[in-house]
Amino acid sequence: MFKKIVVALLVICTLFAFAGCGKQESNVNSVSNESKSRLDKILESGKITMATSPDFAPMEFIDISKIGQDSYVGSDIQLGKYIADKLGVELVIEAMDFSACQAAVTSGNVDMSISGFAWTEERAENMALSDFYNVEDRDGKGQGVLVLKENADKYKTASDFSGKVVAAQNGSLQYQLATTQLLEDVKIESITNLNDGIMMLITGKVDAIAVSSDNGEAFANNYDEIIMSDFYFDYSSQGNVVAVTKGEDELLAEINEIIKEVNEKGLYQQWKTEAISLANELGLDIN
To answer: Are 183 and 258 in contact, with CB atoms under 8 Å apart?
Structure first.
């Protein structure tokens, strides 16, 4: 009887020992996973997730003749694919509203976002921003305002928008410019999608839309009723940036090396030319 009790106790102790080892190993694995950088996880999973708002031709838009991931096209999409290729992983695009792209980065729900981002102090505080790509000079006419063609003569200076309703995409550079450079009595209407804003302008729900000139000219060429006004915001562009989560320095360093190569080879301008051609084929008529 005594021997049976001793054997039983030994079995129980052995079971507890194995259980303890399993728990310890689990904790070690958990700590190991938590210590991995975003770049390590990307390389391990074989894919990189990218948030984008595909309503910004020629940088990111939708080719309705294609389905799934292939339907997302544009020069920013090509940059995302190039980054993925250089890292040796698959690009997974997650389409969402522009403001949601920024939230997805700050929360770490995506690996990066490429969506026509301009550098701003607010973004730099909340996200890690890459070196510049798409660097070009538009002689101070990079950011302006779309209006109805019939009213174009009425809008030449900031004061001409006094008492008017100006739409701007939520979280965008254009929203910031409109709120800081137009008069206080101008009502800024926040929109999530530029296509919605165009319909609001055409139907008279807003008087104007703050846009980048590239994007505004694309819309103006596609809709006879609208045109870029003679008023442009006071803004000098240095180009665009890729956004990643704060603290992911290894990933940002890799992206910066890839952007350096893209800039040196002039690849982005090639992609942009191709994107403009495709947008024209789809009826967007970008110049």
So the answer is: no
Residue 15's pLDDT is 43
Q: Are residues 121 and 154 in the same domain?
A: no
Number of domains in the chain: 2
Residues 243 and 108 in one domain: yes
Q: What is the pTM of this model?
A: 0.74
Please report the sign of the dihedral spanned by the C-alpha atoms of residue 61, residue 75, residue 259, residue 119.
negative
Residue given tokens 């982005």 in the structure block: 268
Instruction: For residues 43 and 131, state if they share a domain.
Output: yes
Looking at the domain assignment, is residue 11 inside a domain?
no
Beta carbons within 8 Å of 252's beta carbon, 6+ residues apart:
128, 130, 244
Domain membership flag for residue 151: yes
User: How many CB atoms are located within 10 Å of the residue 46 CB?
Assistant: 10
Beta strands in the chain (DSSP E): 47-52, 61-62, 72-73, 90-95, 112-117, 128-129, 143-148, 165-169, 187-191, 208-212, 226-232, 241-244
Range of the domain at 44: 39-136+238-281
Tell me, what's the pLDDT at 5?
Answer: 43
Q: Does 187 have pLDDT greater than 70?
A: yes
3-state secondary structure of 224: coil
Average pLDDT, the chain: 88
Angle, helices 249-265 vs 75-87, to 10°: value is 120
Q: Are residues 90 and 143 in contact, defined by beta-carbon separation less than 8 angstroms?
A: no
Within this chain, do residues 121 and 71 fall inside the same structural domain, yes or no? yes
pLDDT tens per residue across span 94-123: 999 999 999 999 999 999 999 999 999 999
